Amino acid sequence: MTAWICVTCGVQHADSPTPPEGCPVCLDERQYVGHGGQRWTTMAELGASHRNEVRDEEPGLTGIATTPSFAIGQRALLVRTPAGNVLWDCISLLDDSTIAAVQELGGIAAICCSHPHFYGALVDWAEAFGARVLLPAADSDWVMRPSPLIETWDGGAIEPVPGLTVARIGGHFDGAAVLHWPEGAGGRGALLTGDTVQVVADRKWVSFMWSYPNLIPLPPSTILDIAERVGRYRFDRVYGGWWGAVVVGDGAEAVWRSARRYVANLES
After folding, report:
1. C-alpha span between 182 and 54 (Å, rounded)
2. Nearest residue to 10 (alpha-carbon basis) of 35, 49, 41
3. Which one of 86, 146, 150, 161 is most buried, counting C-beta atoms within 10 A?
4. CATH number at residue 131
């Protein structure tokens, strides 16, 4: 049987002899089915036409993304720590060269994700590295490929390895989360957000949405709650979900400033 991969969102589904009828992730209002209709691929087919690029973002942080761009085009981030490495968010392609590159960097102890759009082929990644997958229980219904390696957690935050914190902030999904890396940005702290907090084209700002492709906003109370939850952490840099999507300085103030601007525009 085959673990089919949705071409539109890149999320891998449970093994089946034929492709699923539809992708629940894309049928949800936060995503979409592509103009050509529901399409599927496999890991082998994807690997025949694509490869992964592995490059440093800063000391201790490595980005991994598929080229040419596939599905929504996000990149994963490998946070390297003395207590073990954490893969933040995931992508659809895993091949031998990527496994070798990540093993050289110390492997993966745990995989955590910002939200279901970035789950990719996380079970394949977990199996390849013997990693735990830690996902918020609030988003457990969005796990398209179950595995004994997946553990769900409740509450406001967890430590996947000592020194790193994954905090649930809600908004984009009920279990939407960020990863706080205190040693990032030269010790000033970094926040890894996927697009639960979206770094926008003007990298002094971020934004927040319930649906990005369909442009559905979040209510003011939710935005202020997200800003308050994120504000509990000290950070200077914000890493979004794509290459170059980085608030390079004054990140904590950028979140608050952006939240105030967003709410003011909704309420005007």
Report:
1. 23
2. 41
3. 86
4. 3.60.15.10
Do 186 and 57 form a contact (C-beta atoms < 8 A)? no
Cα 147 to chain centroid distance, Å, stands at 19
Residues in the chain: 268
Burial of 213 (0-12, 13-18, 19+ CB in 10 A): middle
Q: How far apart are CA 117 and CA 196, in angstroms?
A: 10
Dihedral angle of Cα 75, 164, 121, 114, to the nearest 10 degrees: -70
Q: List, for residues 183-232, the tens digit of each pLDDT value.
A: 999 999 999 999 999 999 999 999 999 999 999 999 999 999 999 999 99
Long-range Cβ contact pairs of 43-52 (< 8 A, separation 24 or more): 43/3, 43/5, 43/12, 43/92, 43/93, 43/94, 43/121, 43/124, 46/5, 46/70, 46/92, 46/93, 47/93, 47/95, 50/93, 51/93, 51/95, 51/97, 52/91, 52/93, 52/94, 52/95, 52/97, 52/98
- Please identify which residue in the block is written with the tokens 């390297």: 80
| Residue 169 CB coordination number (10 Å) | 24
Domain span at residue 250 reads: 2-267
**Separation between Cα atoms, residue 121 and residue 104, nearest integer Å:** 21
What's the CA gap between 34 and 26, in Å, rounded?
9
pLDDT per residue as tens digits for the range 128-170: 999 999 999 999 999 999 999 999 999 999 999 999 999 999 9
Tell me how many domains the chain contains. 1
**How far apart are alpha carbons 84 and 27 in whole angstroms?**
36
Could you tell me if 91 and 75 are in contact, meaning their C-beta atoms sit under 8 angstroms apart?
A: yes
What DSSP letter does each residue of 66-97 carry, written as one string? EES--TT--EEEEE--TT--EEES--S---HH
Q: Quick one: tokens of 201?
A: 């084209």
* C-alpha of 10 from chain center: 12
